[in-house]
TrEMBL record:
It holds the Pfam family Flavin_Reduct. One of its GO terms (molecular function) is FMN binding. InterPro entries: Flavin_Rdtase-like_dom, Split_barrel_FMN-bd. Transmembrane segments: none annotated. It comes from Cognatiyoonia sediminum. Residues 18-173 form the Flavin reductase like domain. This is NADH-FMN oxidoreductase RutF, flavin reductase (DIM6/NTAB) family.
Amino acid sequence: MFYRPEDGHGLPHNPFNAVVTPRPIGWISTRGADGSENLAPYSFFNAVAYEPPQVMFASTSAKPDRDGTKDTVANITETGEFAVNIVSFEMANAMNMTSGPWEKDIDEFEKASLTKAACSEIGCSYVDGAPAVLECKLTQITTLPGEANRVVFGEVVGVHLRDDCLVDGKFDVTKFHPLARLGYRDYTKVQDLFSLSRPGDG
């Protein structure tokens, strides 16, 4: 099968998201200039640089009460800060609850019965108990072709690691099984690992 996206795929569901998988989930927490809290998951998310450490996530839709974007991007535009909470398998249902199209005055931490913790380097809250949290300062927001498509880049200025996830000096993902997004409404968890040595490794 071959198709041009501009012509349509002819399938019952769009296969694009199922092709680019698995995708890590950035559970982004922000605080608006008015002090309101927001928490929402984004599966167009990844790390993009080591030095200094930087991450990105993309927001691809809009809410009627946010002038062409979503609460997360609106808050970051106002404050220049956000935190990335890494999602463990045990937090799947709470993460899913925060994905709803809630009005901007709804606090998703409360909606999903999550406990807040205060970030150290930025002004917003993070998910208490998350296996890792990246506190970020906005570097740029880029507009992509298409309606409401924006990519947010941030520099990581603080890192929280849950102590039980550190084993022999390494951050061990098998201690919490990261949740990853597949296509459609499907997810998976990381639980099996294998290692490869790169050519030229000593």
